Amino acid sequence: MSASQPKKKIVLAYSGGLDTSCILVWLIEQGYDVIAFTADVGQDDDFEAAKQKALSLGAIKYVCLDLRRDFVDNYIFPAVQADAIYEDRYLLGTALARPCIASGIIRVASEEGASHVSHGATGKGNDQIRFELASYALCPQVEVVSPWRLPEFYERFAGRQALFEYAKAHNIPLPVTPKSPWSMDGNLMHISYESGILEDPKVEAPQDLCTMTKSPAEAPDQAARISIRFEQGIPVKVTNLTTGEEITGSLELYTYLNKIGGEHGIGRVDIVENRFIGMKSRGVYETPAGTILRQAHIDIEVLTMDRELRRIKQRLALDFGEQVYRGFWFSPECKFLRDCIKRSQERVSGTVQLSLFKGGVHVTARDSEFSLYNQELVSMDVQGNYEPRDAEGFIRINALRLREYHRLQGDLDQS
């Protein structure tokens, strides 16, 4: 960019850490006016310190948006309605946060008249895809600068030592405490840990790794008893059945479930997953509130939803989880699935009682005004409006296919 050209404004997703601080200074070197942007999605960060650091490094402005309630209402709770999960174990905490953060970046870019946005995601991970697909969907004309995919950047900063030397040369404050031998990313829904010593899947994660949850072995010896009230698949109230405390409000009840779930060691998983870009990675995740809500929601859904409708909904939820993981939150197909799943939740209302004990979430009772459970019909002591002899024809019709298959298969085996 020549001196005669006006500087272009760029909004950088800024955490205040070493990587994004170096990127901030590097972007200024490339001739950009940098607006540092931080989304508060529940991570335990010092936003005032990040602001002072960004401005001292040359950012023309620092913007921090509190997106916590937006994150819960418009991203986490639709995932709760879906029972969303990726590859059977990952509850999508990072994947759900990225479109929320990207919407904040694009909002700030629009308000500040910035034509470019930037981020510090690496060229090997999922986050680059999630950030950029969301950005292009929300603002088709935006230009994205991804330093870790630019040869002039990644060849210059081939290792962390190069970043440290660059930071020293440009008076970028270095971390006061030693860096953990793994990377960590947190938000309201979860904390994830990967890289470093965790890259070897044969190596057990350190006992002191997790910060959001207690080890189940060290959790209280007395179970916590709670109930969760759902309205159309959305949790609206949590009650502590021991103390009588009631918590309402989306952000408030989610924060409470994180706290009580973390105290009882809920929501830890150590998995290998398939990244969208084509490689496998190992990650450790803590998702206490998400784990509790998924168990409770599945229970009230089974109670209130027709069997065949739920089979269809489960297939949609599988696709939804993959779309979220791959960064397609703002795609037309993902919106269609969210609309379908939301429609399926019209009668998923009721209350679920749970026991939280040493890492386990145990449903103990449930009730709903829309329950499809007929106690008289299912009772072994009352015949109810059911004729047992009807089962004979039901079995014979369902056996027809099996009998024919094995009869003909037997003929083929003998030929």
UniProtKB/TrEMBL annotation:
<dbReference type="GO" id="GO:0006526">
    <property type="term" value="P:L-arginine biosynthetic process"/>
</dbReference>
<dbReference type="InterPro" id="IPR048267">
    <property type="entry name" value="Arginosuc_syn_N"/>
</dbReference>
<dbReference type="GO" id="GO:0000053">
    <property type="term" value="P:argininosuccinate metabolic process"/>
</dbReference>
<dbReference type="InterPro" id="IPR023434">
    <property type="entry name" value="Arginosuc_synth_type_1_subfam"/>
</dbReference>
<dbReference type="GO" id="GO:0005737">
    <property type="term" value="C:cytoplasm"/>
</dbReference>
<dbReference type="GO" id="GO:0004055">
    <property type="term" value="F:argininosuccinate synthase activity"/>
</dbReference>
<keyword id="KW-0028">Amino-acid biosynthesis</keyword>
<dbReference type="InterPro" id="IPR018223">
    <property type="entry name" value="Arginosuc_synth_CS"/>
</dbReference>
<comment type="pathway">
    <text>Nitrogen metabolism; urea cycle; (N(omega)-L-arginino)succinate from L-aspartate and L-citrulline: step 1/1.</text>
</comment>
<dbReference type="Pfam" id="PF20979">
    <property type="entry name" value="Arginosuc_syn_C"/>
</dbReference>
<dbReference type="GO" id="GO:0005524">
    <property type="term" value="F:ATP binding"/>
</dbReference>
<dbReference type="InterPro" id="IPR048268">
    <property type="entry name" value="Arginosuc_syn_C"/>
</dbReference>
<keyword id="KW-0067">ATP-binding</keyword>
<keyword id="KW-0547">Nucleotide-binding</keyword>
<keyword id="KW-0436">Ligase</keyword>
<dbReference type="InterPro" id="IPR014729">
    <property type="entry name" value="Rossmann-like_a/b/a_fold"/>
</dbReference>
<dbReference type="InterPro" id="IPR024074">
    <property type="entry name" value="AS_cat/multimer_dom_body"/>
</dbReference>
<dbReference type="InterPro" id="IPR001518">
    <property type="entry name" value="Arginosuc_synth"/>
</dbReference>
<protein>
    <recommendedName>
        <fullName>Argininosuccinate synthase</fullName>
        <ecNumber>6.3.4.5</ecNumber>
    </recommendedName>
</protein>
<dbReference type="GO" id="GO:0000050">
    <property type="term" value="P:urea cycle"/>
</dbReference>
<comment type="pathway">
    <text>Amino-acid biosynthesis; L-arginine biosynthesis; L-arginine from L-ornithine and carbamoyl phosphate: step 2/3.</text>
</comment>
<dbReference type="Pfam" id="PF00764">
    <property type="entry name" value="Arginosuc_synth"/>
</dbReference>
<comment type="subunit">
    <text>Homotetramer.</text>
</comment>
<keyword id="KW-0055">Arginine biosynthesis</keyword>
<keyword id="KW-0835">Urea cycle</keyword>
